[in-house]
Design goal:
about 575 residues; mainly beta; Neuraminidase; 2 domains; eight-stranded parallel barrel; five-stranded antiparallel beta sheet; 3 helices; 48 strands
Length: about 575
């Protein structure tokens, strides 16, 4: 590997924000270009690391920096470096890893912590050592070259090195990411020159191979990053045209992620390097002029496939329930609550705002973004964008496949009646109707599944409560009406609903009620009216908010949306 190739293999990110939706996926992209980046052929900005605070690291040419909330700081060169210093990973403690080349041409890995560089050299290396990723426990992964110029992976923890070689590799294994549980991802190269990704955990290698990848020389699939939910990102070369696409691998499903401004030729494409616990993906893309641009892709919290309409005082913003409860911080510029992104999918579908409606995030429409009165989009607006798939999960088939074999029952609670269901467990119901002061509570711990072959109705002051420690998934064939105390999960990412009703089906949240969770209802019209609110994320055929409706995207649901 020559000096230029080694540098290009590890380079990182930049600054200058421009948001737009992903092709075929519900992400909002922020392009990050370092201000003084060379915008000519082969130049630009590359991103390779992101942590749970949304901080990223990167390089443009031989200049590296950290970037967070619109502010970037130049990173120093390792004092032992002579030709270059690059940074490739960052953890939540602000520790960084990377590599530098000394005056003799030998590459060394390093850890940068508390403004101090510590060299990382695998004792088995006869030439170079590259440090690629670091978790919050301070464990570092990377690779080294032996005397035969073969690449071997390593795990560095507590001052000890452990070699990691995928048994399917031909002496070339490249670990690049590690999460807090010690799961490692990377790539290996076969004797035929084909790349495959891998996940390594507790001595077991699992191959990561995107089904859309071509198995050709120097092509294939490469895994690069993994979060604490076990979601993996990387890139693959497609079977037609040798074009590079990013991917997210979650719950056994591969989803392609393409930056909308990426070129479509052999030199163009999208490279996904890292993913954090909010589902944000970082990497870079190459445009039609062969210029590199860093990006952060944020899952879109509110998708109205055929349109989204907000009127009155309706408001869209964001927060993260993993940090604290929802609190509105007015003011887009300080970055608080500014990921309340809205998107349409069907061709020529509009996002419409009137009255004093506000979107504290971006609005990306396949048609037009229309504002009147005092309504305002505080983030970027994108119009005439490429269409995306409205129902990637095929919700009708998904819900039908989850129907239990047990005999169903019905839950009807009125007056002051209460009922509790214990998790873990599976509950087969023909309907749920709560009224008066009725309360249905799912308690215990672990995963619970509820199948409702009918409607879900909550009215009066009735409530449906998901207790802390329970993760509830609901599959429902009917309509949803919430006008009572609400459907509440203290952590919205612990409640997810898949609704398959068709033919004008409705999800209505009204009055003073609240829904906290993730709602996937791509065949239903979703309306939020009065003083009601959503904390979480929703996808519907349409999304409508009026009165004082609140749409509060919870970044904690971001990992759920990666499969949407």
């Amino acid at each position: 590997m020559n000096r230029l190739t080694a540098l290009a293999a590890i380079l990182i990110i930049g600054l200058f924000a421009l948001t737009s939706p992903a092709r075929g996926a519900t992400y909002t992209f922020t392009t990050i270009d370092y201000p003084s980046a060379n915008q000519e052929d082969g130049g630009g900005t590359r991103v390779t690391g992101i942590n749970n605070e949304g901080q990223v690291v990167g390089c443009s040419g031989t200049t590296c920096f950290a970037y967070s909330d619109g502010v970037f700081a130049t990173l120093p060169d390792d004092p032992s470096g002579y030709y270059y210093t690059t940074f490739s990973g960052i953890n939540d403690r602000g520790q960084l890893v990377g590599s530098y080349e000394d005056v003799t041409g030998v590459v060394h890995g390093f850890l940068y912590s508390d403004r101090v560089f510590t060299t990382i050299d695998d004792p088995s290396a006869t030439l170079h050592t590259y440090a690629s990723g670091i978790n919050d426990r301070g464990q570092v992964v990377g690779y080294y070259l032996d005397a035969n110029a073969n690449n071997h992976g390593f795990l560095y923890r507590q001052s000890k090195f452990t070699t990691i070689d995928d048994p399917s590799g031909a002496g070339n294994t490249y670990p690049s990411g590690i999460n807090d549980s010690g799961k490692i991802v990377g790539a290996y190269l076969t004797t035929e020159g084909i790349n495959y990704g891998f996940e390594y955990s507790r001595g077991l290698f699992t191959t990561i191979d995107d089904p859309s990848a071509v198995e050709g020389f120097e092509a294939g699939t490469l895994a690069s990053g993994i979060n604490n939910k076990g979601q993996i990102v990387g890139w693959y070369t497609e079977k037609e045209g040798f074009f590079t696409h990013g991917f997210v691998f979650s719950d056994g499903v591969y989803r392609t992620i393409d930056a909308p401004l990426a070129g479509s030729g052999v030199l163009g494409g999208t490279w996904a390097y890292g993913i954090n616990d909010s589902g944000k993906v970082a990497g870079y893309y190459v445009d039609t002029e062969n210029v590199h641009h860093g990006f952060i892709a944020t899952p879109t919290g509110f998708v109205g496939c055929n349109g989204a309409t907000f009127s009155g005082n309706a408001m869209v913003d964001s927060y993260n329930s993993k940090d604290c409860g929802y609190a509105f911080h007015e003011g887009f510029d300080d970055g608080n609550g500014s990921d309340g992104n809205v998107q349409t999918c069907t061709a020529d579908a509009n996002i419409t705002l009137s009255g004093k409606a506000a979107i504290y995030g971006s609005a990306s429409a396949t048609g037009s973004v229309i504002s009147s009165g005092l309504a305002k989009v505080y983030g970027d607006t994108s119009q005439n964008q490429p269409a995306c798939e409205c129902d990637p999960l095929n919700v009708v088939s998904l819900v039908a496949s989850k129907r239990p074999s047990s005999n169903p029952t019905t839950i009807r609670l009125n007056g002051s009646k209460t009922e509790t269901l214990a998790a873990p467990g599976t509950f087969n119901l023909t309907g749920v109707s709560l009224s008066g002061d009725g309360v249905l509570t799912i308690y215990g711990s672990g995963n619970a599944t509820m199948f409702i072959d009918g409607d879900l109705s909550i009215s009066g002051r009735a409530s449906f409560i998901v207790s802390p420690g329970v993760e509830l998934t609901i599959y429902i064939t009917g309509n949803i009406s919430i006008s009572g105390g609400g459907m509440i999960s203290q952590r919205p990412h612990d409640l997810i609903i898949y609704a398959s009703a068709t033919n004008g089906s409705k999800v209505a949240i009204r009055g003073n009620s609240e829904f906290s969770g993730a709602l996937y209802a791509p065949l239903s019209d979703i309306s939020v009216t009065g003083n009601s609110s959503i904390r979480g994320a929703v996808r519907g055929i349409t999304v409508t908010g009026s009165g004082n409706a609140g749409f509060h995207y919870d970044e904690g649901t971001g990992t759920l949306l990666s499969g949407w």
